[in-house]
Structure formats: C-alpha cells, structure tokens
Amino acid sequence: xxxxxxxxxxxxxxxxxxxxxxxxxxxxxxxxxxxxxxxxxxxxxxxxxxxxxxxxxxxxxxxxxxxxxxxxxxxxxxxxxxxxxxxxxxxxxxxxxxxxxxxxxxxxxxxxxxxxxxxxxxxxxxxxxxxxxxxxxxxxxxxxxxxxxxxxxxxxxxxxxxxxxxxxxxxxxxxxxxxxxxxxxxxxxxxxxxxxxxxxxxxxxxxx
Length: 208
What we know:
- By secondary structure, the protein is α+β, with helices and mostly antiparallel strands.
- It has four helices and ten strands; from the N terminus they run αββββααββββαββ.
- It folds into two domains: 101 residues, CATH 2.40.50.140; 54 residues, LysM domain (Membrane-bound Lytic Murein Transglycosylase D, Chain A, Roll).
- A five-stranded mixed barrel has the order 6-7-8-10-9. A two-stranded antiparallel sheet has the order 1-2.
- Strand 1 and strand 2 form a beta hairpin.
- The N and C termini lie far apart (75 Å).
C-alpha cells in the first residue's frame, strides 16, 4: 500500500509541476520585454516583441540619420536677399534664421553663421518642412520597415548603428493623420527632427 501511495503522490507532484511549468512558460512568452523588446529612451514599451529578421518583403532603403535635403523645400536666392530676409519671408520669423544656418551649412559652408552668412544669387537655400512651426534645423531622414504603431508613435526597423529599431513621434494633426494610413510592414521614409533626444519628431512620412 505504501508503495502504491508513493507512486500516486509522485504522479500528482509531476502533474502539478508540469502545470506550473506550462503556466510559467506561457507567462514568459507573453510578458513585455522578454523577447526582442522595443523600448524608447523613456522606457515606455511600444510593443511586446517582434522578431527583427521578419522582413521577407525587404524595403528599398534601410537607413537612419541621413540628410533629408532631397525631401525638403528649397528657395532660390534673389538679388538683395539675406538669410534674415529669407527667414522673414519664407518662415515668417527672423529668429528662425538659426534653422536656415543649421540646414544649409553642410551643403554650402560649415562655418555658416550670423557673422558669416554670405549667400549668392541663384543658390538654392534648403528650408525646414512647411508644416513645422519651429525646428532644431537638424532635419534628417530615416528609411525602413514599420515594426509597430501605438497612438502617435511609430517604430521603424532601420540600420541605426545603436540598434535595429528607432522610435518616432507625430505631434501635429497632419502627421497623426499620416500615421492612420500606415500599417505594420509598410516601407516608408520618415523626415524627422534629429535635434531632440527624447523622441524623434515626425514632420512627414512617404511610402517608398
């Protein structure tokens, strides 16, 4: 009888242990941040997990932090123009001259400044996105595959040197409308402000 009871107790213990292990594994597989977490710099979880190599339909471009000059509006310098006058006429505020300097110094002169703001007739001055009220002037391009979306935020699979994922935020009503037309797996180009370190602000999204 004792041997029989021992066998029954052992079977019960094994069943209980199996059930416990099963529930624990289920918990691990469904807990955020266990498999391939996607977290922004404020540690807000955007998605539970998604395998980074899930990109059978590869996009045309995967890149991060490139100049967005080809996607930005331009202004051709006229006789009598200055960076101040262009800032006033095109952006509505002379204080935004700093954005023009930041946007154009990599193309024309790294030493471009208020003291050295010489421009020539016929030059094409890069302007910030027309829907932006104010920027840091560090407008960049990120290209890749949409990995997740939540509220006004989007995660993109890029070749970002600090990781495979990068998070972007839409602040204006216009860019939030853009996000409504974007789905997981879409290949997009995002024009964003690279001057704010808590979250990259989206100005424009284009399908590749």
